[in-house]
Amino acid sequence: MYFRHIENAASATAVPTSELTRRQFLKLTTLAGSGLSLGIVLPGCGTGPGGAGSAGAASGPLAMPFLRIAPDNTVTVISKHLEAGQGVWTGLPAIVAEELDASWDQMRVESAPAKVPMYQNLAFVPLGAHAQLTGGSTAVANSWQQLREAGATARAMLVAAAARQWNVAAGEITVSDGMVAHAGAGRKATFGELAGSAAKQPVPTEVKLKDPAAFRIVGREKLPRLDARAKSTGTQQFAIDVMLPGMMTAVVMRPPRFGAKVSSFDAAKAKAVPGVIDVVQIPRGVAVVGRDMWSAKKGREVLVVTWDESGAEKRGTAELMKEYRALARGKEAVTVVQVGDAEAALAHAQKRVEGEFEFPYLAHAPMEPLTAVCRLSAEKCEIWAGCQFQTLDQANAAAAVGLKPEQVTINTLAAGGTFGRRANPESDYISEVASIAKATGGKYPVRLIWTREDDITGGRYRPLNYHRISASVGKDGKVAFRQRIVGQSILIGTPFEAILVKNGVDPTAAGGSAAEQYDLADAHVSWSRPTVGVPVLWWRSVENTHMAFSKEVMIDELAHAVGQDPVAFRLALLGKHPRHIGALKLAAEKAGWGSPFSKEKGRGRGVAVHESFGSVVAQVAEVTVKGDKITVDRVVCAVDCGIAVTPDIVKAQMQSGIGYGLSAALYGKITLSDGHVDQTNFHQYQVLRINEMPRAIEVYIVPSTNAPSGVGEPGTPPIAPAVANAVRAATGIRLHTLPFDLAAAHRA
Amino acid sequence: MSIKLTVNGATRELDIDPQMPLLWAIRDHLQLTGTKFGCGMALCGACTVHLEGQATRSCVTPVAAAQGKQITTIEGLSTAAGRAVQGAWIGLDVPQCGYCQSGQVMSAAALLAGNPKPSDTDIDAAMAGNICRCATYVRIRSAIHQAAATLAAGTPAAR
Question: What is the value of pTM for the model shown?
């Protein structure tokens, strides 16, 4: 369900996609001659690590929807996906370069404009959505077939051009490392030399894709990231770095409680601050515009706003959690999964374990606070941002300024992290900047910056969650599971509800339970949906952040209850899940699970395995517990993500997912008191720093010939339960509340 | 008010509030955007620059306090340690989203300038003020060790 098996969805659309590609390709190659480029052309505002999105030389490019070969011999891949650190600006070019037989040195990348169906995410097409978006760890998976075909098509056209020029048979021509050659004729040419004539060749109706055994770029152990240099020298451009002539900077005063609205405001003091240009009301608050960030911020400090809080959420998280506990014991719920008879199995169990789990709200806190730039004229609106939902961002910006979506140009820049935050159905920060541009009459381009306080207190959190679980092992060894999940829906009330919510179940709230991931004869999983005014959103790995935790901790406790080894116990329940077995066995083997672990006091080892977004990840964590402090010494991670297109980036994403998940396990917590968010910046919303990153993280990739699946998110879910299981092994303490609080556990 | 700042060797006179944090003067008035805004409270290190060679959080340093001092941003980083750090960063593909990396590089270069052969514990101590939400920390440690080795061998890598 949902994105758990996205690779099937992507391959199912391969045929119509290639049809589409060819049709649009024809149209675009015709246009290419007239100087039209697919890139984003903004002087001084290059969107890719290759620098400015250049239209190439005056003549002679081979321009296609997904790549452009220029006379200067560069091959620029046009990325329909946002680069937010996950590595698509390297992964997508790798796929094209492979089928094109390009040299890695000649590869460049730039962002695609907002355009559907051309740049829609194919993973969502079978669900009925036609949108350009990056999410659900789908970028490489949905692009795999599409970009292989794009690369192979361009290659065939280069070959056809060479065959014609050299008057030889196309079948005798070889292409290798960016060079087209004919041995017999003693001829060779670069891609750049052939691009112009290749553009005049007929587009092949069918292309032959490589045998994966012949891959030399895809799967290369160390393929340098195309953005590493720009990001190591301060030259990578993010939205916050966009400088347009005459541009002003805005900050917004937003409601002190979620759901409050502006009643009135007094701008006199703010306008008296030197450098403040305008103070305007927008639907989400009051914007202060200044000639620079400092004046806008100083202006906001003295802005007086009166709020109408009649519709605001005024509960605190302690109160909410109390309500959630009651809901978990009530009858109001929808069934997510039901197999066999969980009640009967639990009643006759040999061993039974009960668990209650609490998960806080979590802020994404990407390092680049939300930022967007807007330039508005009567006929046109231009947006620069780290856009994650281009199609929705375009529509929402259009609605905010009163133009049609096609009048809105989206310039997608590298994002300074997102973890899901920049993908929200209302395009909050983009709508805001567009609204400010509208309210100020388009007098000047405007850049909106959220401060860190705006970010931490701004909502769209991973939902607060409560799980209540009864699990048992029967006399026949069979495992039964009954789970109630209480948490807000992310999807209901958004455009995604129609395509993803089935039978009242939001898979982003309650997917990925033990009933889906283990072979259980008896299981009942249900979900209660409280109505809360705190806006929520997907947070790196979405429902898996909490579902994997309670599942893997309960399975471990069951194994412990019946005196079985946690790995062996899991393997016995995974007969129908061969990829889980593969990842789990590999992680266990590399961690030395078969050998006795340290008997040192306070040391423990724990394991967890979970599938999300089509990939399976198993992790073994080794910890040391001293007093109330947990130190994670070593993590061994195994991932099955199908073919690993860029193995070093797969490893980087596992390291990243582990660090991000560990941050939440040790520190992450947003609380509210009377509807006010208690945390404002990193001193209160603490995140993982280098001194607490495990000294040893080893990542192993399960060899696979399956189509690629995601890696941006799947590394996150297993780490918290693996650590909790290690702490229990070390101390006997059951950690069921996130973030971990050993002091509280010791008191209890 | 007129403020004189010497950034990357060039002195510029700016008509700005003396209390304006150096970060915003560098970014908004000198258009040097490699230095990043992350928290505004010296909690994350994204805004790290060198003030007389010392790693300094520009988001809490008023421009008045930086007058008359040598300010180096990522754009002007040209020390042997700086080049070695950037070479290692690129070679090991440290960056992911990349947003914090200017600050990480500036902190690492300052560390190596004072301690050419840091241990993991030294690295943790010197770099704990720089947050990376992509958690590139494992590679940051490796890259600092590699840069130290490069410096010791006396062949600063080209960046």
Answer: 0.93
